[in-house]
Each structure stands twice: as C-alpha cells, then as structure tokens.
Request: fold
Amino acid sequence: MAPAPSAQTAQGISATEAGVSAAQRDTGGSSSTRTAASQSAIITLSKAYTSDTDKYSGNFGDNFEYKSKIFNNRCDMMGVEMEDRGNAIPVTKPALNFYFDFVLGKVSTYSGIIQKLRERFLTPESVRDLVSEFENLTVQTVARSNAKKTTTQCLNLIVARL
Reply:
C-alpha cells in the first residue's frame, strides 16, 4: 500500500503538484519524452485548478465526464501534450486517495488512468443511484425541502444539481 498522502496532497492536487508523476516514478525520476513547453503548460494548468469543486472527487453526483471534458479542453488550450496529461489529472479526495493507492506507479498512460478512475467510480450501482435521484428530482420535491424559496429559486437549485 502506498504511503498516506501528506497534508498538502490531502487538499486535492494534481499529480504534478505532488511532485511525483507516474512517468517519473516508472523511469526513476527522468522524463525524457516531456518537452520543456509541455512541462510549463502542466504547471500553468495546475494553477488553473484553484478550487476543489473544479477537481474530480469521485463523490456521489460528481460528473466525471463533464470534468474530463473541461480538463481536456484546458489541456488543449494550454498546450499539454496527450502523453503528459496523466501527470496533471486534477483530483481530490476520495479519488486522490485512489490515485495514490492504486494508480500512481502502476498505470502511466493518460487513457489508462482515466480507465482506472472510470472503473472505480462509475460503477453500474453508482449510475443507478444517480438515475434514481434524478428521476425523483422535481420542483415539488425541491420546494418541499426549501419552503422559503420561490419557484424560480427552486428551479435554479434543480439546474445547479443537474
């Protein structure tokens, strides 16, 4: 089992911010394929993730596909090469713990890391739970639990939840 994340990593950071990338660990610390431009882009990208809400947590309702699209779009805009994206995936607890315990040093490709995260957090059971929650999400149920809010405010809560 990997050592417990430090206080800094417990805050939810990317692999790059942790100072150890999967590629560096697998190659003994060198990453000959990474260009200086891509390394600079990874650092810039990590600075864009200032809030844990921007990072994937793996918690119920956290939309992996949506956050993955945002991440890939930011990578494209900042020039992070595809082979380096696995070193910059923004995650926070509990996905961060899973990353350190079961992914770091074992899977080094971006597609492999994404696949491991999907296998762990997008299970048929979690999808069923989300579908069930959304099927029961109506203006009436939201209004009942938010009696002091207007209908418009309740609609806004539903939109935010989706």
